[in-house]
Amino acid sequence: MARLIRDNALSLFFFVLFVLALLGQSVAGLARTNEELANHGQPPLTYLDFVFSSDFVVDVAENWQSEFLQFLLFIAATIWLVQRGSPESKKPGDEGVGTDEEQKVGRYAPDDAPAWAKASRWPRVVYENSLVLVMGGIFVLSWLLQSLSGTIVMNDENAQHGQPPISWLQYLGSPEFWDRTLQNWQSEFLAVGTMVAFSIYLRQRGSAESKPVGVAHATSAEESD
Question: Which among 8, 48, 53, 127 is placed 20 to 30 Å from 75, CA to CA?
Fold first, then answer.
């Protein structure tokens, strides 16, 4: 068990933080919602009522879709785009998907390679792009969940003000939807861009996301090995 935890410590660490943050968000959100309900003379919600409500779902899905969009674009962009000196980038001249020999697929696959890396045609094509496909799929599902639950929230608000309901497509074209969406996107793009740029000149000893401390600024991580 100790070895299992050690070998998976990084993913376990962030999963625990995710669960704690999600629980904290749900508790704080319930308290805020019940405070607003009390101010309007309405009965409070239970915890389960709140976490399955459209108000909570739209906030969670909104954050998820922006995060997975961030990594989807970053993974795809680093195939063809480079940033000299950043450990988040391949070195200039290495743009592209690489040869089969470089990627160790097909007849170049070693004995311990995943089975799909040794396959031919479509199974291997799917596996070669599986990270982008899964990230993209989660982004689309999260975005769809955000838009659907957001439509319900807006229609609830419209009903309270005596206004007619709107359709899902109308909500997609509304300022409300794009205001909620773009305020998350811009922060994710800023975070990735600054990470790429800062890692050229700044160091963190011992981190896999940083070049060795003494390596020149213009040297990419692959060139420093």
Answer: 8
Task: Give the amino acid at 81.
Answer: L
Query: What is the rounded distance in angstroms from the CA atom of residue 136 to the CA atom of residue 130?
Result: 10
* Residues 163-198 pLDDT 10s: 999 999 999 999 999 998 999 999 999 999 999 999
Q: Residue 48: which residues within 8 A CB-CB, separation 6 or more?
A: none
Report yes or no: 135 and 71 within 8 Å, Cβ to Cβ.
Answer: yes
Mean pLDDT, rounded, for 94-108: 91
Q: What is the dihedral of CA 202, 205, 207, 212, to 10 degrees?
A: 70
Q: Are residues 6 and 82 in the same domain?
A: no
pTM: 0.87
Identify the CA nearest to 32 among candidates 9, 13, 56.
Answer: 56
Q: Could you tell me the residue range of the domain that residue 219 belongs to?
A: 54-224
Q: How confident is the model at residue 222 (pLDDT cuts 50, 70, 90)?
A: low
Cβ-based neighbour number of residue 225 at 10 Å: 7
Q: Are residues 84 and 30 in the same domain?
A: no
Three-state DSSP at 194 gives helix
Same domain (yes/no): 38, 69: no
Could you tell me how far CA 157 lies from the centroid of its own chain?
A: 29
**pLDDT reported for residue 223:** 61
Compute, in degrees rounded to 10, the torsion defined by CA atoms 88, 91, 92, 94: -110
Say yes or no: 12 and 91 in one domain.
no
Query: Angle at Cα 113 formed by Cα 111 and Cα 118, nearest 5°?
Result: 90
Would you give the DSSP letter of residue 73? H
